[in-house]
Design goal:
2 copies of one chain form a homodimer. With 374 residues, the first copy, chain A, is of the alpha/beta class. Chain A is 36% helix and 10% strand. Chain A is globular.
Chain lengths: 374, 374
């Protein structure tokens, strides 16, 4: 897959003058000692080593086609030797080159919520948030930040959302989908209340499954390989969606929007239709679930395009997107610089033409609102 | 949903004179002291109470629309007061009335594989198998049995398969999908070798998830309600399929067939296409997976119709069945007497006409082979 000479996104510029909004750019902390000054003093020593803080991690080692066709800084260029380490370099070599007008930063800390130490996890989140604002968001209008939180301490998470929730540089609340308990549980509700209070969507990102306090990444135990582990990750979303709907989160917080990163979408028809069928027979346990579950799911959840499942017949893609209302629920995700599965613009090649503008631009504007252009 | 006066299955009798084969009839042990004599002497005392042996169970209580329109024995009829407790009554009131020629017995012990005591679990399996043969299979040609095993002791499981594997009354090996580790793991391979040795399909049935040694029934922890728990169960199958394919089970045992009970089918397109996409980038870890994963899945796995997802537009059902080759991979399951989600014949009402004969009769004959008619 060669990089096209002109941006495929640029073919259809919207009325707002935007050609693509990327909701998933994994900006990288290359030197943690830059983050340390932003971490509360008592825990700063845990973060000050260049290689970063002590974090529980799973035993799966990434495999794949290297970094695909990601631009790489030349060894002698004087810039940081990581494709997502320097905001200026990323803007020039990815955003400008591919016609991406705006990118939402998501980093790579998706296991904070399953770290056994809640104070360190919350301190890291706070430090990273300020580091992101100072180094990426304030100097560059093309980057927007996510308020990273560690959900095992909901009180600290709410405080962090309140601390940064009115900052126009921050456009969502971000947490890892790896969790000790499913996200419908009552303990998490103050987090949703805070999201709604500040008009911020909640973003979930895969990655910490099986690490730290996380249960195994499948309901039948730990996988053996990265290949197997990565394939099973959307099951976290199935667990969280089912939990959030059955626990009545969206009856309690009707304005809450949830964005699911990197999980694909083809499992959604199964989930909503099995869910509706069961609801007809089993809703006596959850009288507050007053509508068919599918309507909560389709009203409140959004998905991203990296990686979109690749059916052998592209017709199926259009049909599944029709079922899940992809014309308003699907958001373009670049997943830069993790292109092991392919180029993000190739990923949406088979998307029906009448959905492209929504997926590339309009749906993000609708989900994130005015902040995105502030 | 009233029971139709004439069997809907009877409308299309096949050349073999069969109108429906039900691969999932949950025959019920009402008095465990009947099973006790079949249990090895040393552990017989654990099984001799009428209410049954001590078994770890999850905390979810079944809810639903009662037993739906299941026939119920009258209180004063002198028969066992359970709709699946007496083989003669079940034959007369379910099979004969609904035009079902043959039913495969699956019982209701789907948590044996996650019981902490392997000896008791294996002893129960053995006792139940002999009780089923003596009380249901030998006296009635319309019933076929499953060799129930407890997979946490693969050596005992293989011995049980070898003990009964040439008995024409037994047509498959049955285990709960709840498991301490995913079914691709090497420790389980002797079980698959034994299945292939006797020409028996392997059947997995949901139900024990979250009990005993099982991890939580979602990768993000325990659900709060039966409704939520039941909705999440197909995730076990996603975990097992991914594991069995990536660990090379079907390269090692190319004749192994696996039947997935009660999990629906609409999640399969997601699973196979995400799997294929990942395989292209990540197969360096598993060089023995030489074909796209979808081809192993579609060649080796079979699904059942209870409960089939109910899309709002029946057209989608035809399309999903097309994708998963439902014309040869889908088997009719009555799920008698657990009809909380509806009548099993209503469940297949929207199945395209040209698939009905396969689903009701031919696919079962093809999967189970000559034993079914022996």
């Amino acid at each position: 897959m060669a990089v096209p000479p002109a941006s495929p996104a640029a073919r259809g510029r919207s009325e707002a003058g935007l050609s693509a909004i990327d909701v998933d750019l994994h900006h990288q902390i290359v030197d943690w000692s830059e983050v340390a000054p932003h971490v509360p003093a008592g825990l700063r020593w845990r973060v000050s080593a260049k290689s970063g803080p002590p974090l529980a991690r799973h035993g799966f080692q990434k495999v794949g086609a290297g970094t695909g066709n990601v631009p790489m800084p030349a060894a002698d260029s004087g810039t940081i030797s990581h494709p997502a380490g320097d905001p200026r370099w990323v803007k020039e070599h990815y955003l400008d080159r591919r016609g991406v007008n705006l990118a939402i930063l998501t980093g790579s800390l998706f296991s904070l919520g399953v770290q056994p130490g809640p104070d360190l996890a919350s301190a890291i989140a706070r430090g990273v948030n300020d580091w992101t604002l100072e180094n990426w968001v304030r100097p560059f209008r093309c980057f927007k930040g996510s308020i990273l939180i560690a959900q095992q301490d909901p009180i600290a998470a709410v405080a962090e959302i309140d601390r940064l929730g009115s900052d126009s540089g921050m456009v969502q609340v971000l947490l890892g989908s790896a969790a000790e308990s499913p996200l419908g549980r009552r303990a998490y509700h103050p987090i949703y209340e805070a999201c709604v209070r500040h008009g911020l969507p909640l973003a979930l990102h895969l990655g910490g499954e099986g690490a730290g306090m996380s249960p195994p990444s499948t309901p039948v135990g730990h996988p053996s390989t990265y290949f197997e582990w990565y394939g099973s990750l959307p099951q976290s979303y199935m667990g969280h969606i089912t939990s959030m709907v059955t626990e009545g989160v969206f009856e309690k917080f009707p304005k809450l929007k949830v964005i699911l990163y990197e999980g694909g979408v083809f499992w959604l028809p199964h989930l909503i239709w099995r869910f509706d069928k069961n609801w007809k027979a089993q809703r006596s346990e959850t009288p507050w679930v007053t509508r068919p579950p599918s309507s909560y799911v389709l009203d409140h959840f959004y998905s991203t395009t990296y990686p979109l499942e690749a059916p052998p017949n592209p017709r199926y893609l259009g049909e599944i997107l029709d079922i899940i209302h992809g014309e308003r629920t699907l958001l373009f995700a670049g997943n830069y610089p993790n292109w092991e599965l392919g180029d993000p613009f190739d990923m949406i090649r088979d998307v029906p033409d009448d959905l492209r503008q929504g997926i590339l631009v309009d749906n993000a504007l609708s989900v994130y609102g005015k902040r995105l252009l502030a």
